[in-house]
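User: Can you help me understand a structure? I only have the sequence.
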Amino acid sequence: METETASNHIRKADGPRVTVIGGGNGLSTMLRGLKNYTENLTAVVTVADDGGGSGKLREDLGMLPPGDIRNCMEALANTEPLMRELLHYRFEEGSLQGQSFGNLFLAALNGISPSFDVAVRRMSEVLAITGRVLPVTTANVQLEAEFENGASVVGESKIFWCKKKQDCRIRRVRLLPQCPEALPEAVAAIEDADLIVFGPGSLYTSIIPNLLVHGIVEAVQETDALKVYVCNVMTQDGETEGYTVSDHIAALFQHGATGLFDLCLTNSAPIPKEIADRYAGEGAEPIRCDTEKCAALGVEAVQRPVAMVENGFVRHNPALLAKELIALQQERGIRIAGSGDYQLEAPSGH
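Assistant: Let's start by predicting it. Here is the structure, written out as C-alpha cells:
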C-alpha cells in the first residue's frame, strides 16, 4: 500500500503544469478534481467581488475580497475534517452573522502580513494546499457593467439586479481603475503552464474580470500552452440569459483578444426534465452548443458528459471534468523533452 501511495505521489508531482483562471464556485469545483492528477496547479482568481461576507470585510477592513480565494484554498486543502468544517462554518447570529470563519481567518492573516498576496500564501501553507492560489492583482478594483441600452452600474453585486431592471444584455464590463497590474506570480504561472483553463464560472463577474488586468491576456497569447475554456452547463439568470456557447466565446474574445483559446469544453450529458423545468422557472436553461458558430470564431467545441445533478442543482462533476481536461492536454498539448512524463489514470476513489 505504501508503494502505491508513493507511486501516485510521484505521478502527481510530475503532472502537467495547469493554470486555471476565474473565480466563484465553478472554479473551486474544478480544482477538487484537478488536484487528483497534478500537484503543479495554480489558480489565478478574480478580486472584483463586493457582495456578501467578502464585501462586508472589504468595506470594514479595506482588504481585498477573500471569498473566491478562500473557496479555492478549501478545495485544494489537505486538512483534517475538523479543520474543513471549521473553515466552512458561518456565524448564525450577532454582528458576524453570515460571515464564514475561513474569510475571517484570511482577514486576520491579512492584518499581520505586508500584503494580501502574502496573507494568501501564508494561509495556503497553514492548509497545506495542493498547488497555489493567487489573486490576479493586488489592486483595489471595482467592476462596472455597461448595458446595451447605455445604462451602467458599478459594483459586482449590483450587476444582477441592474440587468434584471434594464432587461437587456450586458455590452461590456470594465475594471475601475482600468488596467491594474497583474500579480507577477500570476503572469509567471501562465507563462510556465502546459494547460491554461478559463472557467467555469460566471462569465462577466468571475472570468472576464481577470482578462481586464494588465499582463494576463498578453501572457496567455505568448505561451504555447493548450488553452481551454470550460463553458458553464446552464445559463445564469441576471447575467447570461439566452446565451449560447458561441455567445460566451464572443464575449471572452471581445474583452480579451480574438483567438485567446481554441478549444471549448461543453457538457453533453442530458439534464433531467424535472431539473430543467425548475431552472426554466428561474430564467435559466442548458446552454446550447452552436458548434458551427463556435468554429466561425476559430474555436473547436468539444462536447463531453461532464455534468451531474447534486442536491437538485446542476454542477460540473469534478472527477469527470478533470479527467477530460487532462485527456485533452495529453492529446493536444505540447510536451517539452525532458519535462517529465505522466499517465492518465483515474485516481483511487474517483
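Now, to help you interpret it: Confidence is low (pLDDT under 50) at residues 1-7, 336-343. The longest strand covers residues 170-176. Let me know which part you'd like to focus on.
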